[in-house]
Specification:
mainly beta, four-stranded antiparallel beta sheet
Length: 128
């Protein structure tokens, strides 16, 4: 059984940086399209960033464009989210997700419904 495990969250001051990692473990994972989402208390889960199977194409929410960068290492079965210039409003639980079915190709990478495998999340808290 494949699992996604996020790490790298924590407490950081506004303006600081964090790098999140999402590692796949278990059976052969392949290289599916991957996404990062976040959910703050009382809010719906929202799209943050996504990356295609090859890593050639990336997508970002307007709120993080220019500050966050998604990347992947298919040899290590790991996806990263580099977060710079963090703001208090970036505070949330961050989840990584995998699209093993191929839905993002037709539906786009920004909807939660396009992903079939989710990690348990890692907390990011930005103090102002």
């Amino acid at each position: 059984q494949v699992q996604l495990v996020e790490s790298g969250g924590g407490l950081v001051q506004a303006g600081g940086s964090l790098r999140l990692s999402c590692a796949a473990s278990g059976r052969t994972f392949g290289s599916p399209a991957m996404g990062w989402f976040r959910q703050a208390p009382g809010n719906e889960r929202e799209f943050v960033a996504a990356i295609t199977c090859s890593g050639i194409s990336t997508y970002y929410a307007d709120s993080v464009k220019g500050r966050f960068a998604i990347s992947r290492d298919n040899v290590k079965n790991t996806v990263y989210l580099q977060m710079n210039s963090l703001k208090a409003e970036d505070t949330a639980v961050y989840f990584c997700a995998a699209d093993r079915v191929g839905r993002t190709a037709g539906w786009g990478p920004r909807g939660v419904e396009a992903y079939d495998l989710w990690g348990q999340g890692t907390q990011v808290t930005v103090s102002s």
